[in-house]
Amino acid sequence: MDDEFETSEWWLKQAIAEAPDRREAYVEMAKLCYENKLWSECLDAAERAIAITEKPLEYLCEEFAWGFAPYDYAAIAAYNLGFTDVALEYGMKAVELNPTDERLQRNIMFYKQ
Asked: N or C: which end of the chain has fewer CB within 10 A?
């Protein structure tokens, strides 16, 4: 991995340590791992975000963390790890949260193959 990845990873780990009960840093970590094809780490970070079910009612709460993104990252990572049933489950949830996104809909068809 390059220095940029390592720096980003370090900061995200700091953010997670600082606020382990918040989704935002986990979703950002999932995105970083997705971009670097680190599928196991991507799935882990996305599932940790998904496991946080209490949405804070404050201005620091970022909508991207509470939308389809963590489910999309989890689905893509699960598929790349060979967990097609898990990929389909997360993919369906992503579509449920963003039903007009054609890419998400196409991914469902891909996961079913």
From this structure: C
